[in-house]
Give the backbone structure.
Amino acid sequence: MAKMWAGRTDGVTSKLADDFNSSIHFDSRMYRQDITGSMAHAAMLGAQGIITQQEADKIIEGLSGILEDLESDKLAFDMECEDIHMFVEQELTSRIGDVGKKLHTARSRNDQVALDFRMYLRDEIDEILDLTEALIRTVTDKAEAYADAIMPGYTHLQRAQPITFGHHLMAYSMMLLRDVSRLQDCRLRMNVSPIGSCALAGTTYETDREFEAKKLGFNGVCMNSIDGVSDRDFAIELLSALSILMMHLSRFSEEVILWCSWEFKFVELSDSFTTGSSIMPQKKNPDMAELCRGKTGRVYGDLMALLTVMKGIPLAYNKDMQEDKEAVFDACDTVKMCLKVFTEMVAGMKALTQNMRTAAQKGFINATDLADYLVRKGLPFRTAYKISGQIVADCIAKGLVLETYTIEDYQKHSPLIEEDVYSAVDLSVCVEKRISLGGTSVASVREQIAYVRKLYPTK
């Protein structure tokens, strides 16, 4: 097949080189953006008198027909074409004749692909934002259901202080809110049109770049034509935001996996989002959470791949940059699937609240509250800390917890301890005393829920 760029060379390359050079097998997914961008470009050419209005209308009508036929599967992609741009132009010319060849006036594939890529990723961000917001709602719903369910909070994976399951879940809602903010910021910086930058130096035609930008929903235009075609920082920024989002899903996954184990048994997942073993009939494996955790590494790899591609490329466009799309497409596809699965998995997750509370009691996570109790009785904190530690050690030796330790034993350690100690170490009281903003008291958790609900009301 003769190449549209034939001229300086005869345009004949080997089949091996064609296959290596071709990108249509992955950039064909940008066909809507490519055709829509070309329609705006034709409209600009007509409005500026660079081509006649009749020619512009004919081109737009032809492009509209191609889009309609692709959407309805009447037209298939020609995988012999080098890329989606060449496919559309070739198909257009075959339908409307030489007028179709005028479409590429005052542009290059360099600014065309940069335009398509920004438009495509802009749409992907919108979809990922919707999915992330759905997960925020689901996690917040679950937090509301368990706003007063007491569990041990951990540091170093050691039981530390009593919290509620609702409080723990709301930590993830807050992380996801920041993920939304990062994606929104990324979209804002991405939403600048490169079309009209041409190959790298602009064009001699009197184009109207703002006209095209406005028609395609951009907030403005790239102010330097070299920058417009040669950078992919918008894609790298998106991959970075997606990597952070996946990191949050991975941490959440790790906890779900731990919580499902017999060693914790804090939650039970729906059968719909677990699998069994081919040999061990007792198993109920949290495979969906494990896959989300595993796929995080895949998204990290996509980020590192594009950073590595871009790190040594001189200005302006280089063919290396064809490697930008597959990494970003893969990351977007992976994140969208993980968000969908994770949302459904969390929605069906049931907390085993009695197991949580029992673990909280056995962990002596109310020992800090015992020390605070002694401080309020007049002891210096370090003295109170030491006495509390001695009481915990004695409880462990006797197989007791602070709530069942006798008042006689308490008073052996300090005569200041009275019957009101049992109220001080009651887990519910310990939780409710955490009244500071953002703390674990039920009222504070409900305040956090209300904050999120204001941003994302329940549908």
Q: What stands out?
A: The chain has three domains: 15-105, 110-357, 361-455. Residues 43 and 56 are 6 Å apart (CA to CA). DSSP finds 19 helices and six strands in the chain. The radius of gyration is 31 Å.
